[in-house]
Amino acid sequence: MSPLRVPAAVSSMTGDIIDGRRVADEIRGELRGRLDRLRARGVNPGLTAILVGDNPGSQLYVKMKGKACEEMGMAHQTLEMPKDTSQEELLRVVHELNADPKVHGILVQQPLPLQISVDAAVRAVHPMKDVDCFHPENVGLVLIGSPRFAPATPAGVVELLVRSGNPPAGKDVVIAGRSNIVGKPLAALLMQKAKNANATVTVVHSATRDLAAHTRRADILVAAMGAPRTIRADMVKDGVVVIDVATNRIPDASKKSGYRTVGDVDFEAVREKARAITPVPGGVGPLTNALLLAHLVRAAQKQAMQKQATRLEGAEGASGADGATEGSAR
Q1: What does the pLDDT profile of the chain (330 residues) look like in tens digits?
Q2: With helix as H, strand as E and coil as C, how does 47-89 read?
Q3: Catalytic pick from 16, 19, 65, 303?
Q4: Is residue 125 within 8 Å of residue 321, measured between CB atoms?
Q5: In the annotation, is 172 catalytic?
Q6: Catalytic residue among 109, 129, 171, 184
Q7: Is 132 noted as a catalytic residue in this protein?
Q8: Which of 124, 143, 247, 299 has the maximum number of C-beta atoms within 10 A of its C-beta?
Q9: Domains observed in the chain
């Protein structure tokens, strides 16, 4: 008998808190068996992050990714390049990493200095190593419902919904925010005729008239605007499930740092009406790291299979050539 899965939500008098850390731990646990099988074949997934300049936020983000790899025993390295690095030099480094069989995933950390085209940098990464899912080929595969990788944060939102007992199928989902990183790919994932999808999706944004009229319809509301505490209690209906993707810093004199982190949702007020809600921090954030690791493992598996297929084709070609030589000798 298989063990009963306990939904990753902590009950309370008001809305349940969807525990992102618990879901992330569950996903990492599921990865261990796949990692063991890869290592038995002599493959250890490797991630390389490229950091151009000294943006503190980017440095912290890359450091967190490295720590996540270390905790799972995966290889990782960070290539730090000066702020005045030319686009030509960055692309040269990316092409070298594309050709390195020990590197299975490449992250070109954004933002980039003005002299470097983000589009050129994104397109330079081989689609098979694009574990962030920014390359146009991978974005297109997400849109048509055949993802090689899904962007980690939108994929994390789906995992949170499903594993907390709030599947999106048949639900009205409203996504507040239309970014290329969250809003657009999440809409593409949820609208598919597929498992863990089949939602009716509305995307609202800065040009939407009467935002609250849309958010009040939502069975599931995903906030990803980057506007602190914009979603108030009067903007949601009773029993809504709320996923708050945003992380915003606001001043707080009581904190040693002088600020605290909040989401796009007025958490305490909205929680009084919600069926379930993610906290900030501790909700979507942990899933982003866990899903990036899952993509890295998948990339390593795909590249190992591709390498094996190429080797077999080469062996068959050599065998055919030997047969042809033998026949002509007769």
Answers
A1: 444 454 566 544 488 999 999 999 999 999 999 999 999 999 999 999 999 999 988 898 899 999 999 999 999 999 999 999 999 999 999 999 999 999 999 999 999 999 999 999 999 999 999 999 999 999 999 999 999 999 999 999 999 999 999 999 999 999 999 999 999 999 999 999 999 999 999 999 999 999 999 999 999 999 999 999 999 999 999 999 999 999 888 898 999 889 898 999 999 999 999 999 999 999 999 999 999 999 999 999 999 998 877 776 766 665 665 555 555 555
A2: EEEEEECCCHHHHHHHHHHHHHHHHCCCEEEEEEECCCCCHHH
A3: 65
A4: no
A5: no
A6: 109
A7: yes
A8: 299
A9: 43-132 (3.40.50.10860), 152-284 (3.40.50.720)
